[in-house]
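The aim of this short unit is practical: by the end, you should be able to scan a pair of folded records and say something sensible about each. We start with the first protein, listed as its amino acid sequence and then its structure tokens.
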Amino acid sequence: MLNIYKWSETDRKTKNKIMNRSMFDISAIRDYVAGWLTKIQKEGDMAMLEYTRQFDNKEFKLKDLKVTRREIENAYKTVNPKVVEILKRQISISRQNAVSRIRQETVLKSFVPGVTVGYKISPIESAGLAVPAGQVPLPTVMQILAVSAKAAGVSRIIACYPPTGEYPEILIAADLSGVDEIYRVGGIAGIAAMAYGTETIKPVVKISGPGSIYTQAAKMLVFGKVTIDMVAGPSEAIILADDKADPIYCAADILARAEHAPDAAGVLVTDSIKLKK
């Protein structure tokens, strides 16, 4: 259901609610997230297994943590070839974009005798990708993250996703994009494993990817031990439109953001009575 407000007639409380929509605040869950991070840092695989069984898959077994080559090959057999071709096209576009932005260079300058300053841009050794799969599989997220890391020349790329179901599309996207290791673990546990390492998963230098507020809080709390891309989300679309705008396009853009999570926001700002209806 869409709420429609006429700004000049909207009370201050509602205006504040609209203006502060989707604010990211981890204060209420900080201690909870930190508790799991500490537990997994100390206890490794077993704590990671406990988390996964509690939140993602109560029947999960540690032997299924790492995706095997055979499982990847079987994924190709279960997915419609047309879907595989779509993934390949997406990856090709993502790769062209990523390569166009790559810079690997060393710049040295000497302003006074005996003093040289400069910088060097080079690939990091390893990257961990957090790929959500709580509500629906997101192979596009997998390929966008992985292709960027691969184009940059990262030596070791791992990906983690929650074992909430069988997601062959995610495995195919990871394989086509050049991911070296794939693990079935998500949320706080996935971030902890990539940051601190466990008996099975070696730690990485940088963690990237979207996810729930718990995943993003975990990224914030491990920052310093590892580097992160950013705090992602909540998703939002705000569209400024007049009476010439296509209502179908406006609705599609809003829905594309709103489907990400319950805390996503879609806002249309318009002076057109016809468009808002």
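Turning to the second protein, read its sequence before its tokens, just as you did above.
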Amino acid sequence: MTTIDEDWTFHRMTSQGFFRLDIPEELNMGRICTDWWVEHGGRGNDVAIYHGDEKITYRELKELTDAFASGAYRVGLKKGERYVIRTPNCPEYMVAFLGGQKIGAVPVPVNPMLREHELVHIINNSESVAAVCTADLVENIENIRPRCPTLQHIIVIGEAQKDCISYTELMKSAKGAPPHVATHKDDPAFYLYTSGTTAGPKGVVHAHRFIIGAGDPIGKFTMGLERGDICGGPTALTWMYALGHNFLFSLRWGTSVAMWTDARFDPERAFEFVQKYKLTLFVGTPTIYRHMLAVRDAEKRFDLSSLKYCLSSGEPLLAETVREWSRRFGVRTIDSMGQTEAHEFCTSQTQIGLKIGSMGKPLPGIEVAIVDDNGKVLAPGEIGHLAIRGDHPGLCLEYFKMPEITKEVSLPHDWYNTKDLASSDEDGYFWYCSRSDDIMTSRGYRISPAEVETALQTHKAVLESGVAGAMTPEGEKVKAWVVLHQGFEPTRELAEELKNHVKNTIAPYTHPQENEFITELPKTSSGKILRRELRRMEREKHGIPEPVKTKVITTGEP
């Protein structure tokens, strides 16, 4: 792991030449993650992917992605065209992602749990011409095909149905290397859809430069990747955090990925996963770590001695979790702050003066500040917009076909507004306060309160509802405050019915973990729901104070 002396901040290291991003004009994410290690890096026989009891070397991964690229090109997929990938974690997901990129096409990974109307929105908004999915998920794609005018091809992993293309046959029929399609560092490389506050999911467009702009500082300074490392965790590759750490960045650095393929998370299986593959880096979330800590005598039953670090993101990591994990397993947990639009930009991976509870410090090459509405940098201790300098090559290009929203996140003096509120301290550490646009982060997912409110209000019993992230000692949860129509009684059975209603209406992970029935919602004079007041009510109800800064601890103190 790279050691960073406290006297040399990341930004000073960058400015004085200790770390520099070198991004060529012609750049292709798919080729740099596969071909480079075979043709130049001398790692063709190194394992790229572990899955089940199987292994895929870098040479084999190059051949597989070449085959997909050739097959997709022959089918008619062209440079710049989008194609949806809807699969669980599997090697074919990686092959389709990188293989399409090799011919300049643009993958759009989507969560397999999305409902049909959500898929329609994403396919139509992205104007995707093809979809890659597993056989168990093809029915939804077939059902919505008439509502998706741009969708021409469905490539099925497994038994293909009528009017679909067999993934196996596509791969077998590929002859020779795919054509060389030149891509520029600023060309779109992939889209990820993230929750919007009012409209449907927003298409976040990332360029090929992302693999170096984000992958190099994260791979070097947060992950400390070196040959022989094996990275993995029980997180979905459709989520930016896992897409980077458990896939792209590991391959960018020529290391190995162990693929979690279980449909559901089980904490004991997570321990077995680390032990089986002898992971050196485990990628989790605060929720995952809390569930694993609840496994009795896990430190005696499982061997975690291969681990160098455990990584965490997605929601605030509580100090108690960090200390308990370190005490029981002797492994340090590295927390980081990021988002779909920029991936990770702050990390707690500094060797001296760690402040548990903070977001840490900015990564090399990334200028981060707390600014006001006019882009003026605020003094330490003042709460303002958490902003990233607009020239960061890991930043997204835009929200696809949403120029107004793209403009909204631009602040004067070339700052990108993360829509998070935070503060900094005299030592350069950043401290999270809240989302400024009410998006919730629960169980690692970003969830739109407006989307959950809309789903709730399609139930016959619901007059209106307000949804907000409620902080608990275990982290943030999705909570709904519900006003009922006359004639309906607020019962435990109805609360459970509303949870299931949301699960069946939109993605299951968005459902409220708690429903509270009230007679009136707090609102502004114009009738808008005051979600910040709902959050305040919840904190007051449970006696939870506002977040406070924790003390500085030195290396070695748990």
